[in-house]
Amino acid sequence: MGTSTAYGGPGGETPLVPSWLGDADIAGAPAAPPGDGAVPNGQPPADGAVPPVPPNRPPIPKTADPQRFSGARNSFTRFAGSGGSDRVNLGRAVSRYVSTSAGGARQAAQRMGASRGAGARLLGFLADAQARGVREALRALDLESLAGRPLTEIFVGLADYVCPGASTVDEGIAREAYIETIVELASEGLTDLTTFTPDQMQTVFELYATHAIEARICNDIGTKAVTMPVDTQAAHRVEQQLRDFIRGGVSDALTRARAETPNLTPERIQGFVDALYESAFAILQTLGNAEADQ
Predict the structure, then answer these.
(1) Is residue 88 part of a domain?
(2) Alpha carbon of 51 to those of 32, 42, 48: distances in Å?
(3) DSSP secondary structure letter of residue 58
(4) I want to staple 75 with a disulfide (CB 3.0 to 4.6 A). Which of 89, 121, 229, 232 is the partner?
(5) How far is CA 38 from the centre of its chain?
(6) Number of folded domains in the chain?
(7) According to the lineage, what is the superkingdom (predicted)?
(8) Domain of 91?
């Protein structure tokens, strides 16, 4: 939604997390020989020695359920058709996306590969700017010329650092979520990076993660397969209801994460972000179930 990349959704047979396999061409690998020490003719070696057993190869991923998107897609279509008033089907759509379409909160978080990396770089820059000052944080990235510029100009200048790629759907989601975050900075009262508080840092990251998760869900469900209201105001309500719902889950996850990790060092930022996405999806599934049960 918004400026998020739209396509028809992944094919149902696509593995849940296809891009996290190793580099080995496991599909075309030869079959491993039997592990009983036999040679190709089935006879043991003449000297009685047992030949080494080759290392286990990673298993070929199972074909995913081709219908795993249908439940979330159908519920979201009903929610969209209501003009944003059907909270029951909003909850069902989000809950079914996490539990069935993505395969659980951990798998859903793994699908956020580029957005997790971008989120960590964004949070790392904000933490550095608060610790050492904006100019020093920008100098470390060879962007000192942005010091003293308006906040939106600084964030635009950071775009290639935060989101270095845009050649895949995953990278496109990360970059467009970042762009939408920049658009919302002023409306959130975020105008001066030199005076950012920890709460304002949380707000920036909260905006980013919200847009990234929203775009991931909409792309996976397949926005072209979902009928949106013709009325512009109704379509906007649908978009805003979904975004507010996701932001609530992200905000809860951030509050918990900050309580568990009050001192966020540079070495812990990526792990913090990874855990936060997983926690956010788990909370969204819980919130979705609660809406669906009403």
Answers:
(1) yes
(2) 13, 13, 9
(3) P
(4) 89
(5) 47
(6) 1
(7) Bacteria
(8) 70-292
d(CA 8, CA 90) in angstroms, rounded, equals 20
Which pLDDT band, with edges at 50, 70 and 90, does 69 fall under? confident
Instruction: Enter the tokens of residue 82.
Output: 């209501």
Retrieve residue 183's tokens: 């658009």
* Within a domain: 9: no
Joined tokens for residue 125: 């820059």
Q: What is the mean pLDDT of the chain?
A: 83
Tens of pLDDT, residues 142-196: 999 999 999 999 999 999 999 998 899 999 999 999 999 999 999 999 999 999 9
| Cα–Cα distance for residue pair 281/250, rounded to 1 Å | 8
Q: What is the pLDDT of residues 94-125, one digit of tens each?
A: 999 999 999 999 999 999 999 999 999 999 99
Residues 6+ apart with CB under 8 A from 165: 114, 171, 175
- Taking each helix axis from N to C end, the angle separating 198-221 and 169-184, rounded to the nearest 10 degrees, works out to 140
- Alpha helices (H) in 21-166, listed in sequence order: 70-81, 87-96, 105-110, 113-132, 134-139, 151-157, 159-162
Asked whether residue 107 is assigned to any structural domain, the reply reads: yes
Lowest-confidence region among 75-79, 93-97, 220-224:
220-224
- Residue with structure tokens 């298993």? 59
